[in-house]
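Q: I have four molecules that I believe assemble together. Could you output structure tokens for the complex as a whole instead of separate predictions?
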Amino acid sequence: MPRELRLRRRVQFYETDVAGIVHFSWFFRYMEEAEHALWREAGLSIHPERSDIGWPRVAAACEFHRALKFEQEFDIAIRITDVTKRTISYACEMSQDGQKIATGTLKIACVAKLPDGSMKSAEIPADVADRLKPFAYRPSAIEDRSPDTA
Amino acid sequence: MPRELRLRRRVQFYETDVAGIVHFSWFFRYMEEAEHALWREAGLSIHPERSDIGWPRVAAACEFHRALKFEQEFDIAIRITDVTKRTISYACEMSQDGQKIATGTLKIACVAKLPDGSMKSAEIPADVADRLKPFAYRPSAIEDRSPDTA
Amino acid sequence: MPRELRLRRRVQFYETDVAGIVHFSWFFRYMEEAEHALWREAGLSIHPERSDIGWPRVAAACEFHRALKFEQEFDIAIRITDVTKRTISYACEMSQDGQKIATGTLKIACVAKLPDGSMKSAEIPADVADRLKPFAYRPSAIEDRSPDTA
Amino acid sequence: MPRELRLRRRVQFYETDVAGIVHFSWFFRYMEEAEHALWREAGLSIHPERSDIGWPRVAAACEFHRALKFEQEFDIAIRITDVTKRTISYACEMSQDGQKIATGTLKIACVAKLPDGSMKSAEIPADVADRLKPFAYRPSAIEDRSPDTA
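A: Yes, here they are, computed for all four components at once.
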């Protein structure tokens, strides 16, 4: 059974806007918080100091079902839905007392940092794929990773 | 010919992250900046003081093609792709010297603010639809607005 | 003995900047997080829904001694240093493994929200002052609150 | 006559909070925007790629006199108030139609980035001091820069 990472979080004042609710841009940050907690749970850091690889986002999407307000507590659940040779995809659900608040997806790519400061697509290191395996929805996706077509 | 709203913008220091590039959450704020500029260009404010309607986001998505760095200038172009009785959809492209940086979509819904602080789906006021018409990709979408199924 | 409120917090990725450290603007948000946690600890919310008073900041300052980096854990300690009829002042220290990271101050004022949307200076409600008393450095400051000269 | 850098800016939706006004943390970002514009006006970038020096903030303070709301336009004026061998201090005023909104100060230090990722206090390069001279309140402060005692 694939594991998901669950996080409880309280809405901070600076996350709200004049409409009285959490600004939609924050949900993407909530997803990232959960993603990085998942990596820590897997014994990894997504950005160790002096690493020569990086993990830029290639796509992010979110649907908003209900509003969140100042000081409310809510849950974030994230799991890995796909791993290819060069990308990782996540699905995320934010909820409050079991009620769905928002659902989102995130896709990141592995890149190598070149000496001139630019980035180049790279294969996911084997040890990273190994450690993330328990969180993958389809572990086969990691063992038999398909080549990327993009 | 539908009009689009174009905005030139410079990357601020606080928009960057430790990976050395603009944090992905900012692209959703860039889209919103362009959306609100489009409303102003149409003679509207998306959040006038003491208004009893509001425009929460129901969906947002973005694909990231290239990175943006501190102090770089870039362009945001936004246009309306669909208008239903209760929602407005936008398409957005961020580019730099003609090179695509990111492409995104945004869908907002019209809501009425109830006395108890909650929100309820509402029809888009006719004068708002009228003023946004010149920016709609398919103006017919506004004249003959389809009922919402969601 | 006045109590302080202590909070342990981890640096999030979106709080860092291209210099590789937490952007200085975040320290003011860290202070606010601790302030609101102190209010909750005192049985209060600084922004209850439908309240007719508010607590805008009148001054904020911070000195930065050391940098914080992605994923590092640190502590925030906040206490009330002064309470007048209309204002509350806090002192805050952010530290990591006992080493001082930053020290700051925050001063907020009580205001009444007028029907036209503007704000007017107001006296701190007695029950709020009562509940905050245990966190005040000089409890006398609350009992014998001096008139404000500004 | 020392020059100041003036910037006109519009309040963005994501800069507001549930109290209906610009969140106080944003004023520190407004100051930084003006600071970096001043450096560009002086022919400099405060963070060129691949530079081995940096400019962390050592202190920041702001007093808030009036609130700013969504879509309002306001002005930021910044000037250099002091330059020592290792630090630069700024004074900043944010105003709207001539009315003072907020006044702040910012002090930054020059640091050298060490190979291990840490930072070490460094002297301000002569060409940087030269280029900033026209913006210094007391140009003598640059020509006859006092040694730092901290």
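A: One point stands out. The beta strands of chain C are 5-10, 53-54, 57-64, 73-83, 87-96, 99-109, 111-113, 119-121.
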